Amino acid sequence: MSTKPVKPIKTPPKQLNIEDTESLKCDACGNYSFIKSYFIRRVSPLMSPTGQEALIPIEVFSCGNCGKVPDKMIPKGDE
Questions:
Q1: Do 61 and 68 meet the contact criterion of CB atoms below 8 Å apart?
Q2: What is the sign, positive or negative, of the torsion defined by CA atoms of 67, 71, 77, 79?
Q3: Is the CB of residue 75 less than 8 Å from the CB of residue 41?
Q4: Which of 5, 15, 52, 66 pairs with 33 at a CA distance of 20 to 30 A?
Q5: Closest by Cα among 69, 77, 67, 68 to 41
Q6: 46 or 72: whose pLDDT is higher?
Q7: DSSP 3-state of 20
Q8: Structure confidence at residue 56 (pLDDT)
Q9: What is the pTM of this model?
Q10: What angle do CA 59, 63, 64 make, to 5 degrees?
Q11: Does residue 68 contact residue 26 with C-beta atoms inside 8 Å?
């Protein structure tokens, strides 16, 4: 009897058909292209684990035409 740990059997990743997805469009202007944008959150030195002020970037997507960030992507507290 072997004392080696048994490795779990890996299942192959599920194949995704792009036709089964839906495109997102901007609610404000109807554009379909988005660009990366960032919300920057400041952490006070009192709350920071290092004891120093910190800036935390939160990546979101904004409309490439009008710049609006979809409501679903706005972090809580920034509405």
A1: no
A2: positive
A3: yes
A4: 15
A5: 77
A6: 46
A7: helix
A8: 93
A9: 0.64
A10: 105
A11: yes
**The two three-digit tokens of residue 10, written as one number:** 């890996």
Locate 29 and state its tokens: 């202007």
CB atoms closer than 10 angstroms to residue 26: 20
Q: Would you place residue 79 in the very low, low, confident or very high pLDDT band (cuts 50, 70, 90)?
A: low
**Residue 61: CB partners within 8 Å, gap ≥ 6?**
34, 35, 36, 37, 69, 70, 73
Give pLDDT, residue 15. 85
pLDDT in tens, 25-69: 999 999 999 999 999 999 999 998 899 999 999 999 999 999 999
How many residues are given for the chain? 79
